[in-house]
Write a structure and sequence with these properties.
Elements (H helix, E strand, L loop, with lengths): L2 H13 L6 E4 L11 E3 L3 H9 L12 E6 L5 H14 E12 L4 H11 L2 E7 L2 E7 L6 H8 L5 E2 L6 E2 L11 H8 L7 E6 L5 H9 L3 E8 L2 H10 L4 E5 L10 E6 L11 H13 L1 E12 L4 H7 L4 E6 L3 E6 L1
Helix pairs in contact: 3-5, 6-7
The chain binds S-adenosylmethionine (SAM).
S-adenosylmethionine binds next to helix 7 and strand 10.
């Protein structure tokens, strides 16, 4: 179980927020939570929420008397999330946020208390949960500053749009850049980009090869896919999808910079699951091109999946692997 979630649920019980509609931003199921509306951009967690009977919304609207907030780790996402929660609070409503200490819980508790006085705070499971209300108006300048962090912004001069909270927000990932340099102009037919993020690799693949008929972008984070829709138009299809569950069809080529972290921790098995999906989803004669941190033991895994691999380039941080 996620310790920040446990601390959030503990705070919800202890702080006794006002009765009424509840919204959970960054929702995860928990047996002790009351009925509520859930917003969760990550597909595997959204599936868990649905399985637990939590109604999901893509875009929360209306006013809620309690908002529970379990953010990711990025500063922009957390601060923009405070502003978003404020705008969704009913008069007199209460916002309870929980974060791991290592994710800067004390720092963000201090930050939100600059906008509105703290109602309560609890420290447990190496996490903190803290509550504020909108009984008195929040500090307007700070609120506006946080609101400005919301939404899409361009990586200067690149034509690529990202938003807070997504992988490699505001910059091109150097591993992906290395893989992009090795995407050959010979790619053709149907291509899948696994863990496509905001669409960097897919767009470079399409720019390099006019013989690609379609790129399918498979990505777990709906916010990243929303960026990808801005970054690509022709020949691209967008799938909010958990790659570890397999793909619906087979491909001529697969490209990927697999994740090796889940929201909470390092998870090499997730990267291996990506490669297992890729191996099962290549057409006969199909190819897989991937980039990985150089210490990750992917070649042995590819070998066990019946793929032959060679390293196209390796530097101090990454290796680019070609498999067929
Ligand atoms: C290392 S990043 C690469 C992103 C993008 N391809 C790029 O080059 O910028 C890995 C991506 O996989 C996504 N991801 C993580 N778990 C996933 C899953 N189970 N299914 C699909 N995508 C996932 C992450 O949200 C992230 O965008």
């Amino acid at each position: 179980m996620n310790p920040a979630l446990e601390t959030l649920v503990l705070a919800y019980r202890e702080f006794q927020p006002p009765s009424g509609e509840i919204l959970f931003l960054g929702a995860e199921p928990h047996p002790d939570l009351p009925p509520l509306t859930a917003w969760q951009p990550l597909k595997p967690l959204a599936v868990q929420c649905e399985a637990a009977g939590m109604p999901l919304t893509d875009q929360p609207t209306g006013k809620f008397s309690t908002i529970l907030f379990l953010p990711g780790k990025s500063k922009g996402e957390i601060l923009a999330g405070f502003a978003r929660a404020h705008d969704l609070l009913a008069p007199g409503g209460v916002l309870i946020t929980a974060l791991a200490n290592t994710a800067g819980a004390s720092r963000y508790e201090k930050e939100i208390s600059r906008a509105s006085p703290l109602l309560a705070s609890v420290s447990k499971n190496k996490c903190r949960a803290f509550a504020v209300s909108n009984k008195t108006p929040w500090q307007a300048d700070l609120l506006n500053e946080w609101r400005e962090l919301e939404g899409f912004y361009e990586i200067p001069g690149s034509g690529f749009f990202t938003q807070p909270g997504v992988f490699s927000s505001g910059r091109i990932d150097p591993g992906s850049e290395l893989l992009a340099a090795h995407l050959p102009p010979s790619l053709r037919g149907n291509v899948a980009d696994l863990g496509a993020g905001w669409g960097y690799l897919s767009r470079i693949a399409l720019e390099k090869s006019s013989r690609i008929e379609r790129v399918d972008l498979f990505e777990a984070d709906s916010r990243a896919l929303d960026c990808a829709r801005k970054n690509l138009s022709a020949k691209a299809a967008f799938h909010w999808h958990d790659v570890s569950t397999g793909l619906p069809e087979k491909y001529d080529h697969i490209i990927t910079n697999p994740p090796f972290h889940t929201a909470q921790s390092k998870d090499i098995d997730l990267g291996k699951a990506f490669l297992t999906t890729a191996a099962a989803s290549l057409k006969r004669g199909g190819t897989l091109l991937l980039v990985a941190n150089r210490q990750l033991p992917y070649e042995a895994h590819l070998d066990s999946l019946g793929l032959r691999s060679r390293i196209l380039e390796e530097n101090h941080a990454y290796k680019v692997i070609f498999s067929s």
